[in-house]
Every structure is written in C-alpha cells, then in structure tokens.
Amino acid sequence: MTVLVTGGAGYIGSHMVHALADRSEPLVVVDNMTTGYRPNLPDDVRLVIGDIGDQILIERVMRDHDVNAVVHFAGSIVVPDSVADPLGYYANNTVKSRSLMAAAVNCGVKHFIFSSTAAVYGMPDQAMIAEEAATVPISPYGSSKLMTEMMLADSAHAHDFAYTALRYFNVAGADPDGRTGQSSPRATHLIKVASQAALGQRSHMEIYGTDYDTDDGTGVRDYIHVSDLIAAHVLALDRLRAGGDSQVMNCGYGRGYSVRQVVDAVRRVSGVDFEARETGRRAGDPATLVAIADRARAELGWVPAYDDLDVIVGHAYAWETRMAGRNTAGA
Ligand SMILES: NC(=O)c1ccc[n+]([C@@H]2O[C@H](COP(=O)([O-])OP(=O)(O)OC[C@H]3O[C@@H](n4cnc5c(N)ncnc54)[C@H](O)[C@@H]3O)[C@@H](O)[C@H]2O)c1
Ligand SMILES: O=c1ccn([C@@H]2O[C@H](COP(=O)(O)OP(=O)(O)O[C@H]3O[C@H](CO)[C@@H](O)[C@H](O)[C@H]3O)[C@@H](O)[C@H]2O)c(=O)[nH]1
User: Fold this and answer.
1) Going by fewer Cβ within 10 Å, which terminus of the chain is more open, N or C?
2) Chain centre to alpha carbon of residue 29
3) Ligand 2: does its nearest atom lie under 6 Å from the Cβ of 119?
C-alpha cells in the first residue's frame, strides 16, 4: 500500500512527503530533479531519480513498491515560460501525465491525486470562482493541466480507479517546522520575490500593474498556506481509500489579498522597508482569482489551520532566511 509521490522533491511535493512520513505511510518519490531539491526530503526517503514519462521505469517502481496510490505533483509550473515554450509544457505536463496514468492503469493503481490549478479558469468574469465556473485557460500552462484533468475523467470512467483533481489557488508559506519550503532560485512567486527583496537578495521588486479593476488597482489572489493545501491532499487520499468518487476541488481560503497588501505584510513581518517599483501589467495575469472552496470543506472535512496572511508570510520569510544562510555558508 505504498504511495508514489511524483515531483516529491519540489516545493509542494516535499511537504506531502513529510506529511506522509509523519503518518508512517510507506512512500516512494520519483523526481527528475529539474527543480527538485534533495535536502528538503527526509534522509531516509526512497527517492528514484527518473522521469514520469519513462513508463517502463514507472511501472517497475509501481510493481517493486506495491504502489496503490499516486499523488502527482511533477510538472512545469511557470506561466510565462509556458507561453514561450508551449510544446515543452504540453510534453512535460500533458503527454507525460498520460504516460503516468497508463502505467497506473497497467499496474492496477486505484487512487490518483492530481495537482491542478486555478489557471484552468483563465480570466473569469466573476471574482469568486466555484468548480462549476467555465474552464477557459489563457495560457498553455492552464491548458496543459486542464487536458490532464480530462484524461483523468475519461480514464476513471473506463478503468477501475478514482481520482481527485485539486485546483490550487496561490500556494505560499513553508513548513512551520522549517523542514522544507520553496527552494528554486528562479521562483517567480510574489511572496518569495518580496522576501528576497527584504533580505537584500534583490535590489528591489516590481509590482506588475496598478490599473486593475480592484480596490487598490493591483492584482488580487487567494494565498493558501502550503501546509493547509497538503492537509487537503491527505484528506483526499483517505477519502479515496474509503471508496470516495472522483471529484474536482478548489483549494483556497475564499479571501483575496492585493499585491500591495502582500508587499505591506512582507515589510511588516521582516521589518524592512524594501523598494517595490510600480511597472506595467505582466502578460496573462487576471485581475482577481479567489476560490469558493466549499466543496473541499464539505467533501473532505477540510478545516484550514493557517488562514492568516502574516502567518503565511512569516513562514515563507523564515524559510527564505534559512535558505540565505545555507547559500552564504556554501559560497
Ligand atoms: N506553486 C503554486 O502556486 C502552484 C499552483 C497551482 C498548481 N501547482 C502545481 O503543483 C505542482 C507542484 O508545484 P511546485 O510549486 O511544487 O513546483 P516545483 O517545481 O517545486 O516541483 C515540481 C517537481 O516536479 C519535478 N519534475 C518536473 N518534471 C518532471 C518529470 N517529467 N519527471 C519527474 N519529475 C519532474 C521537479 O524536479 C520538481 O521537483 C505542479 O504540478 C504545479 O503545476 C503549483
Ligand atoms: O514580482 C512579482 C510577482 C508577482 N506579482 C503579482 O502578484 C500576483 C501573484 O503572482 P504569482 O505569485 O506569480 O502567482 P500567479 O501568477 O497568480 O500564479 C500562481 O498561482 C496560480 C493559481 O492561481 C498557479 O496556477 C501558478 O502555478 C502559480 O504560479 C499577480 O497579480 C502578479 O502580477 C507582482 O506584482 N510582482
């Protein structure tokens, strides 16, 4: 009854690995280490360095480890990169997910949890988004994820497995115990970038667009603490094991913060008045993305524990401080 965690050496996946290890669940990680970071994993984890598109390898891992559930985080995640390299994104996110699913079907894996995204909704006309909202992605990244959801739905009809596709809103923060966090130096996420500016790793940061139709003109997002997101995964796994049906669920708190509010929070938490320069809009950014996450609460009994912007920022900033120390020590 082993859980296969794809992309388990990445930001979100490594939090899942710790959560499963905390429950003493047998698990195996497959990661090709393109953006993965080994030090974020427990020392004794079973890590197979390989690609989810290598179906022979994946089937061997599934059989050797008696895998019964897959939690699929592996993928490429930078929206502007997907605009520049759509075929690369469809290859890594869609084609290789198809291969992973084929391996799961061949090996009789019964449960599948998939990292989907609010990007499947595109530029919604309503600020608050439920799962029934139209899915009209505006980036190859969003399309690559929506296509994977479609493959899951069709395969679950045809074969004996059930899935949960979790549509994450903006994932932020870090493990409260400091075991792992966002470690990719190229990460573009707002709270990470602002924390780097506060630590002096950047001379300044930029606010992309101040003319949105929002209260203060900057983009509004629903920031969810990574540990709350992982709690939803663990509950989704338990629900599938108990015979739960296939579902798509939003993961967010149902409350949005503007870029300016986030920048103020990072200044408040860090005590550093770093520079935030106002520039033009970034391509493909909707004004507002906020989840209606009633389904996750009802179906999973999910109750967030870290729904507080200063707590999220505090954990992200503590992690960034730790990373800065590591980098200095290694220099
Ligand atoms: N970070 C967010 O705000 C966010 C929001 C919505 C959805 N997601 C989704 O969550 C998942 C995890 O995102 P993250 O922020 O942890 O990113 P990440 O880049 O930190 O983690 C992705 C991991 O997958 C691995 N990987 C990539 N392609 C692979 C392949 N072909 N075979 C094996 N391993 C591969 C990478 O090495 C990395 O360890 C992704 O699928 C992403 O699309 C993230
Ligand atoms: O240096 C920066 C970085 C971001 N922003 C703004 O901050 C907000 C959040 O941006 P970011 O942290 O880059 O996240 P998103 O572009 O909203 O995308 C994240 O959240 C999506 C779900 O909502 C996921 O699909 C993506 O994978 C994930 O990167 C947006 O309004 C950006 O324009 C800035 O102003 N300056």
Assistant:
1) C
2) 16
3) yes
Q: Does 301 lie in the same domain as 271?
A: yes
DSSP state of 324: H
Q: Which tokens in the block code for residue 174?
A: 């870090």
- Answer yes or no: do 300 and 324 share one domain: yes
Residue 297 Cα to ligand 2 middle (Å): 24
CATH at 200: 3.90.25.10
Predicted ipTM?
Answer: 0.97
Annotated catalytic residue within 37, 141, 163, 317: 141
Structural domain count, the chain:
2
Kind and range of the H or E run holding 38 = none
pTM of the model: 0.97
Residue 239 in domain: yes
When the pLDDT of each residue in the chain is averaged and rounded to a whole number, the result is 95
Tell me, yes or no, if 141 is annotated catalytic. yes
